[in-house]
Amino acid sequence: MIAIIDYGIGNVFNVQNAVVPLMNDAKLTSSPAEILSASHIILPGVGAFRDAIEALEQQGLVEVLKQAHEKRIPILGICLGMQLLYEVSYENGTYQGLGFLKGPVVRFPEPQVKRIPQIGWNTLVENKASLFSGVEGEVYFVHSYYAQGIEDEILTYVDYDGVKVPAIVGSDKVYGMQFHPEKSAEVGRKLLERFFSL
After folding, report:
1. Per-residue model confidence as pLDDT tens digits over 115-131
2. How far apart (Å, rounded) are the C-alpha atoms in residues 104 and 94?
3. Over the stretch 17-46, which tens digit does the pLDDT of each residue have?
4. How many Cα atoms sit within 13 Å of 128 on the Cβ side?
């Protein structure tokens, strides 16, 4: 079963609608038992980091996700869900993340970046050979904050006004996509298929 974490943050139904045609056993769930028995886990999210991490904590899902990580169940964070995988976010304060990936989440630098948030299509650039190598094209972004993770974990990136923005990151069966694969047409579908191939 593919567990899509349902914790009340963001439109999880868009993710579900994109995943079910690829993996018909995908299910929205907040059940610890289902999450820990899943073959793959997707952590979606739209909105503020603080609200998301607090929702996960209140539902006991931070500990569940840490157990899943220890069991080496493949985890994919999407958009805000990717940012939650990092150690800390500085979005309107300082908030601790899950810590599966190294580094902070910070706001785009002004005035270098002329428009915040980044909204729209941007072209993936491969940074490191990975599970996602060879999938090329544009993907759809909506975000004001980005991860300043370690270089070795950046698999692909995009250039946004001269800022190297990690687009796909990964380490030890934990992956993140800062963009929305569910809104990225054929490229997004192929990238999700690669994740499910693990």
Report:
1. 999 999 999 999 999 99
2. 10
3. 999 999 999 999 999 999 999 999 999 999
4. 13
Q: How is domain 2-196 classified at the architecture level of CATH? A: 3-Layer(aba) Sandwich (3.40)
Give the three-class secondary structure for 22. coil
Q: Is 40 a catalytic residue?
A: no
Q: Would you call 91 a catalytic residue per the annotation?
A: no
Spacing of C-alpha 68 from chain mean position: 16
The Cα 10–Cα 52 span in angstroms is 9
Asked if omega into 111 is within 30° of 0 (cis), the reply is: yes
Q: What letter represents residue 24's amino acid? A: N
Task: Report pTM.
Answer: 0.96
Domain residue ranges in the chain: 2-196
Instruction: Catalytic residue, from 40, 69, 79, 143: name it.
Output: 79
Band of the pLDDT at 10, cuts 50, 70, 90?
confident
Annotated catalytic residue 182? yes
Do the Cβ atoms of 25 and 1 come closer than 8 Å?
Answer: yes
Structure tokens at 21: 């045609």
Query: Among residues 69, 143, 153, 182, which one is catalytic?
Result: 182
Catalytic residue (one of 40, 69, 143, 180): 180
Comparing CA positions, the residue from 166, 151, 1 lying closest to residue 73 is 1
Amino acid at 121: W
